[in-house]
Predict the 3D structure of the following.
Amino acid sequence: MIKIVAIVKRKPGMAVEPFQEYWRTRHADVVRKLPGVRRYVQSHTLLAGYRKGEPAWDGIAELWFDDTHALRALRGTPEQAAIDADEARFLDRSAMKMLATDEDVVIDGPIPEGSVKSIEFVTHRPDLAIDAFQRYWRETHGPIAARIPQIRRYVQSHVRASAYAGGRTPAYDGLAITWFDDTAAMRAAAATPEYARTRADEANFISGELPFIITREIVVV
């Protein structure tokens, strides 16, 4: 299984609530018709995230496919063309980032109804090779973060090796995705010693500050 992550910003001049409404309704109807999509989830940045200014991103879309053959089969299809045309109606396509990822589920817990979803955009420390970075994130950092008691589910999405072929550099090296009961639970988590240890460990494999958004997810497919 492969997961494609689209990291999105709304079209310049478009207000947040009409953007979210269009994405959730009209655009979702277009994507539902895409051949081979096994699962499709939108995660919308909470409106509270705009109170202090523009957040890093307006949200992400996650689409799961069986394999890369299923992705290649979409090229030139009318369904893919319809998605591309519709994106121009509400997205800033010049800012959009696409990542092909593999999921590593660290805490395989159920997603509580009404939960919030934290998405952190991860960039590796430049002195680490990508395989060493991914291994540390998965095998060392993941178990440390998993001890934060308020986390209900925790998934690492690692960018696939093919994204680095030919010296290419993807926008991010992965996403750290965690679910909490609500924003109060997130605040409580930030006061725990387990959270402090998690943040302290980030310097061992991550470069700089982690951009993040707090979202609610909408399961479309």
Q: What stands out?
A: The domain at 1-95 is CATH 3.30.70.100 (Alpha-Beta Plaits). The mean pLDDT is 97. The helical segments are 16-31, 68-72, 78-87, 130-145, 183-189, 193-201.
